[in-house]
Design a protein that fits this description.
By secondary structure, the chain is α/β, with parallel strands linked by helices. The protein is built from 21 helices and 11 strands. The strands form 3 sheets. The chain has a 5-stranded parallel β-sheet, with helices on both faces. The protein binds D-mannonic acid (CS2).
């Protein structure tokens, strides 16, 4: 089978959408750190849809800070790739061409910094997942003892982390007396712009006080809320895309039709008019972000931990259990919504109806194991802020707390059948040690995990109704299993 490329584009069936602008005449204006599936499904498609209608110098150069895999696959096809939009019944492929190049950090850090420092780069967008910010999730501050940060402080010209890379490129702009690029975080962090701003400044302060001052005075870090459900691509997806295209594509992305992007409109050197493609440019993103992190991601993580323990491989399978579906809807209605400041003009009931439909989409095969990853980085913004809201009124939210108990059971690394769980988390070794020390003592297990201050901070673990409810949930999970535990919450 021939490979997707500029040359073979004309051989695609008419049902496949292709770029409808002159790729060779579109200059790079955006550099993107973290060129994984999410970015290629989200900011890349928004930007391509925008410049199709309003041409501009907004092509994207991707940066991979991990390794050459995606670059190699994309380069062999002129950086073209497919996004397969998987509705419940209809699957629509489109070929995306907005990415013009991908540079690989570990291969050539200088090329990466040069590209970011280039005067044509007006925006640096970021999706490096929560742990890529090298911060303490409980406080949002830079983790100065992070090995990557330590490395970058010693080797500022060949950084490994996103933070070290951003600061090295900003420093070059400063030395050239040029205007800085805008830093646009597109990760699921609370006030993501403020979070990246804090860690960038925290790191710059350790490098050079003048640089810190220049960043404080000149760099904009707008906040965003990003949304599209995009599971990791599998071999089966690669085959499904090839069957649609009649050409092979080694770098396709698959995901849902839905997408949403709210952006704080604060850019120092202009931006694509993303509103043309449906993005919402607003003055305050926080209500959108809070609604999405708590309702979507909070529910997702609950389904991931409890669903995995109950033996479900995928989110849609978990949602097909009536007990889980009722549990999650009641959690949203009775526990999460009261703690959310609904953005003006949003119909929250319709928003939740849509979330239930999106989670239930049988075409999107999103593994519970994938979402369960990196819980230490996700729990604070997905669960704990909502929990704090209820505790302030003296109540512990039972379902959210069961989600946290589910996380505790999950990170022990042993499932309900006694099988090993492949726990992926920067703190996985700590969790394992805590679980080993606790043995079969559920109370000690909960105490040990609640003592991880990077997640729970200092105050929350002292609140008795919270401790009690999480412990009761954990005890129930060990006694009856996740499926039966969820069934008990029906009334
Ligand atoms: C998921 C998110 O993997 C996860 O933790 O909850 O990636 C989720 O699919 C996206 O935030 C949806 O916008």
């Amino acid at each position: 089978m021939k490979r997707l490329s500029e040359k073979t584009l004309s051989e695609l069936p008419k049902s496949v959408a292709v770029p409808r602008y002159d790729r060779s005449k579109t200059d790079v204006g955006i550099v993107h750190l973290g060129i994984g599936a999410f970015h290629r499904s989200h900011q890349a498609t928004y930007t391509e849809d925008t410049i199709t209608q309003e041409p501009g110098p907004w092509a994207i150069c991707g940066i991979d800070l991990l390794g050459p895999d995606i670059r190699d696959k994309m380069k062999a096809q002129d950086f073209l790739y497919t996004y397969l939009e998987q509705g419940p019944t209809e699957h629509k492929p489109r070929v995306v061409g907005i990415i013009r190049d991908v540079l690989v950090g570990p291969e050539d850090p200088k090329a990466v910094i040069d590209r970011m420092a280039h005067p044509g780069t007006k925006i640096v967008t970021i999706t490096v997942t929560e742990k890529g910010y090298c911060h303490d999730p409980a406080t949002g501050l830079l983790n100065q003892s992070h090995p990557g940060i330590q490395h970058d402080l010693q080797n500022p010209a060949s950084p490994k982390t996103a933070i070290g890379t951003l600061v090295a490129a900003l420093d070059r702009r400063r030395q050239a007396k040029a205007t800085p690029f805008t830093v646009l975080s597109c990760d699921n962090l609370p006030s993501n712009g403020k979070t990246v701003e804090k860690v960038v400044k925290g790191y710059a302060a350790l490098r050079d006080k003048d640089l810190l001052k220049w960043i404080e005075d000149t760099v904009a870090f707008p906040c965003t809320m990003v949304d599209r459900i995009v599971p990791a691509t599998t071999q089966k997806d690669v085959e499904a895309v090839a069957a649609k295209l009649g050409l092979s594509d080694e770098a396709p992305v698959v995901g849902e039709p839905f997408r949403q992007w709210a952006i704080e409109d604060r850019f120092t050197q202009g931006r694509p008019h993303w509103e043309i493609a449906g993005a919402e440019l607003v003055s305050d993103v926080e209500p959108y972000e809070e609604m999405k992190l708590r309702l979507l991601n909070g529910s997702h993580s609950t389904l991931a931990y409890l669903g995995y323990l109950a033996g479900y491989q995928y989110i849609d399978e978990t949602m097909a259990s009536p007990a889980f579906k009722t549990f999650i809807r009641r959690m949203m209605d009775e526990e999460t919504t009261p703690a959310v400041d609904v953005p003006k003009g949003v119909n929250i009931t319709a928003y939740k109806d849509e979330l239930i439909a999106r989670f239930s989409n049988p075409s999107v095969k999103h593994r519970t194991w994938q979402i369960a990853m990196d819980g230490s980085q996700k729990l604070p913004q997905r669960f704990l802020n909502t929990v704090r809201h209820h505790l302030a009124a003296g109540q512990a939210p039972r379902r959210l707390c069961l989600g946290i108990s589910g996380w505790m059971r999950y990170v022990t690394g042993i499932d309900e059948k006694g099988q090993k769980i492949d726990v992926r988390d920067p703190l996985a070794d700590r969790f394992k040690a805590i679980a080993q020390k606790a043995g079969s003592n559920v109370d000690s297990l909960a105490d040990g995990l609640l003592g991880v201050r990077e997640i729970f901070g200092d105050e929350l673990p002292k609140v008795e109704p919270f401790r009690r409810t999480v412990k009761d949930g954990l005890e129930l999970l060990y006694r009856v299993g996740a499926q039966k535990a969820v069934e008990r919450f029906q009334s």
